[in-house]
Amino acid sequence: MQRILYTILAAFVMALALGPILIPWLKRMKFGQTINELGPQSHKVKQGIPTMGGMIFALPALVAGVIFAPAQADWQIVAMPFVCMAGFGLIGFVDDFIKVKKKRSLGLTPRQKLVPQILLSIGIGVWAYLHPLIGSSLVVPFFGVEWNLGWAFIPVIAFVLVGTVNSANLLDGLDGLLAGTGAIDFASMSLICALLAAAHPDMESEYLATAVFSGAMTGAVIGFLRYNTHPANVFMGDVGSFAIGGALAGIALVTRLSLLLPLIAFTMLISSLSDIIQVAYFKKTHGKRIFKMAPLHHHFELSGMPETKIVTMYDLTTMALCLVALLGFTA
């Protein structure tokens, strides 16, 4: 546990220190956010605020995660969440770079983003499937049993990875929203992994390594919140939201807890579902809408709820559901 706490603290301090260096550089490079014309009118004041700030937490998390990872842990188990975060974060970086260079809200097209995401996810799924400590089984939360998917494990994991990454991206719509809920998610996963390390001596090092990486993400994202809470000085951009989604799904992958993500990452899930429902209903009814705007947090915003109140509501919801998830590992 002490190792995890040191990791959280180190990542937090590094992110705090990196902010005053990276934010002015992003301003000098004119890497400002271009606001979507179809978005809420209240967001117009955010035009030009530096984006691509996800590097403020991604880099410290990588450094702290490597430094504090137990040396005796299986290197592939250590590497998988890193690869998930860095791989998807790189796709987000390219998307952000196109946006800031072309001064528009659209970077890569949906297909240009989805194709590399799917290819990366399949590759990671095959890697995990072939690893003896992961294989083809997922833990069924609260029931203490495993579900052997056989070869179907690969497409299921690919779906989870792509879905989590894009759901995280949809949730990143208000100051501090994804960072706040993400920090709670990572803290919960770190604690769950620590509990699993204590309960499974044969895989103690591997679970501890995953707890350390989760802790690194926790500390780094909390440090980033210093600059991202309302009113934000910097946005994480797609490089940040993709990295958060990739890291969270990667942690769930190596612990075989992907089925726990709908509970822990519920606010990400509801963002995707509200967007899918809105589009489907719009097409079905030829122009009618269920929500004032999707994802759901924009519906609350257009209904008159202050941005800070929406963020607090999402944080509390995430905290409550993560506590429920923890019950499955404390019996």
Could you characterize what this model shows?
With 331 residues, this protein is an all-alpha fold. The chain has one domain (2-33, 47-135, 145-259). 68% of the residues lie in helices and 2% in strands. The chain contains 12 helices and 2 strands. The longest helix is centred in the first third of the chain and has 28 residues, at 75-102. It is globular, with a radius of gyration of 19 Å. Pfam families: Glycos_transf_4 (PF00953). Its EC number is 2.7.8.13.
- Give the ordered list of helices and strands: HHHHEEHHHHHHHH
Give helix % range: 55-70%
Beta-strand segment tally:
2
Q: Count of DSSP helices?
A: 12
Layout: helices, strands, pairs:
Layout: H1 2-28, H2 55-68, H3 75-102, H4 110-130, E1 137-140, E2 145-148, H5 153-171, H6 177-199, H7 204-228, H8 237-254, H9 261-264, H10 266-284, H11 296-302, H12 307-327
Antiparallel strand pairs: 1-2
Task: Give a quick rundown of the structure.
Pfam families: Glycos_transf_4. With 331 residues, this protein is mainly α.
Keywords:
331 residues, mainly alpha, two-stranded antiparallel sheet, 12 helices, 68% helix, globular, cell membrane, cell shape, peptidoglycan synthesis
